[in-house]
Amino acid sequence: MAHLSTHVLDTMHGCPAAGMRVVLQRLDGDRLVELRRLQLNADGRNDGGPLLDAAAMASGRYRLLFEVAAYFRGLGVKLPEPAFLDVVTLDFGIADAGARYHVPLLVSPWSYSTYRGS
User: Fold this and answer.
1) How far apart are CA 39 and CA 46, in angstroms?
2) The pTM is what?
3) Which of 24, 27, 49, 99 is the most exposed, having the fewest neighbouring CB atoms within 10 Å of its CB?
């Protein structure tokens, strides 16, 4: 079943990034349209399931914004001002609206990695 999902893992503490705030946007020409604003659950995922379900999937360019510095500061991690990573912005494309797109993020206050998961 087609959908878009994400999963965030905190590599500094070796756990899901519970409580991290995430924003999903669609790039429409020069405009950004906010589609979702959410807070990750205890497993580092969206509580409501996919970010986009099959009915909402559409080909195009999208952006996920992960509020990394706020998440780590909320855990008591001392970060410099400004933080090395504040909001991690991932731009990606959905070419096939009938496919599954999973966008995981592995993150610490100083690095991140992502890929297209399954």
Assistant:
1) 7
2) 0.96
3) 49
Q: In angstroms, rounded to a whole number, what is the distance separating the alpha carbons of residues 106 and 16?
A: 9
Contact (Cβ atoms closer than 8 angstroms) between residue 23 and residue 16: no
Q: What is the pLDDT of residues 98-109, one digit of tens each?
A: 999 999 999 999
| pLDDT, mean of residues 37-46 | 98
Does residue 38 sit in helix, strand or coil?
A: strand
Chain center to CA of 109 = 15
Domains of the chain: 3-114 (2.60.40.180)
Structural tokens at position 87: 């909001």
**Model confidence at 118: pLDDT above 90:** no
Mean pLDDT, rounded, for 2-11: 98
User: In 3D, which of 21, 30, 8, 26 has the Cα closest to residue 97?
Assistant: 26
Asked whether 50 and 3 are in contact (CB, 8 A), the reply is yes
